[in-house]
Amino acid sequence: MALPVLGVVNHVDRSGTVLTASDTAGDLGPSNMVNPIIARPWRTTSLTAYCTIDFGADVDIGVLALRFPRNTAFPTAGTVQHQLDPNGGSAGAGATYDSGAVSINTTDGYGYHVIVLGSEYSARYWHFTFNVSGVSFVDVGRAWAGPVFRSTYGLAYGDQDTWADPSLRQQGARSGAVYVDRLEPWRVMSDSFVALSNSERSDVREIARQAGVANQVIFIRDPNTVSTETVIGRFRSVPVWSQQQWGRSVSSFVIEESL
């Protein structure tokens, strides 16, 4: 397992950021990817559509993520190309970073396409292009581009992972038949960063301050299996950190996925 990744700053939400797309269906424009509600997406009927995100200035980027709503079909076949370009450059040139055509690498039931960059890049423009198949349209509920935190020693043993299912189930008193009102479940991850140095503890404390319980974070438990080990959501409560020994701390948190 690779070292986990946690981030709170999403430059897509940055004031003045401009999102443009080659194709939009109805009023479901690319600005919807700024909305933290995943179910309100940018929709395109072009399976080769592209989107350009202009942050207005160079910003630090360590992860790129697209979250597809699970209440509609999302692509599991095809590719996405990501290109980053600096202030003064041309969007889509890929002068700072060019992923090439990489697999969409999504998994049924999850809906995440994620690129964890080997190092952070400074760029003003993020341009991504789809070349997918197997669907009649593409919905993207959230786009994420920002810096990330990695601890030296990763996570403690005892992590927990489940799905919260709000579906309602009722049994008829006479017939015994069970009636179900199916609702969409969301992921819940419970983890602890272990053996944090003093500087790492300060980093986690700052993430907790910025996120609170209101703002979204991105958490990638294992960057080697991003399609099923990523959540974009919120802390259930503000993370707590405690000192294990001199100069070493542990920070525990629970993240509930956004829908």
List the defining traits of the structure above:
2 domains, Jelly Rolls, 259 residues, six-stranded antiparallel β-sheet
Can you give a write-up of this model?
By secondary structure, this protein is mostly beta strands. It folds into two domains: 5-146, Galactose-binding domain-like (Jelly Rolls); 160-257, no CATH class. The protein contains one helix and 17 strands. The strands form four sheets. Strands 1, 10, 13, 14, 15, 16 and 17 form a seven-stranded antiparallel beta sheet that branches. The protein is globular and about 55 Å long. The protein starts with a strand and ends with a strand. 36% of the residues are buried. The model has no long low-confidence stretch (mean pLDDT 95).
What would the CATH topology of the largest domain be? Jelly Rolls
**CATH superfamily membership of the largest domain:** Galactose-binding domain-like
Strand % is over 45%
Largest sheet: 7 strands, antiparallel
Tally of structural domains: 2
Specify the structural class: mainly beta
CATH architecture of the largest domain: Sandwich
Note the gap between the termini. Answer: 27 Å
CATH class category name of the largest domain:
Mainly Beta
**Rounded mean pLDDT score:** 95
Instruction: Enumerate the spans where pLDDT stays under 50 for 5 or more consecutive residues.
Output: none
Number of E strands: 17
Overall spatial form: globular
Specify Rg, calculated over alpha carbons. Answer: 19 Å
* Proportion of residues in helical segments: under 10%
Report the order of strands and helices.
Answer: EEEEEEEEEEEEEHEEEE
Number of helices: 1
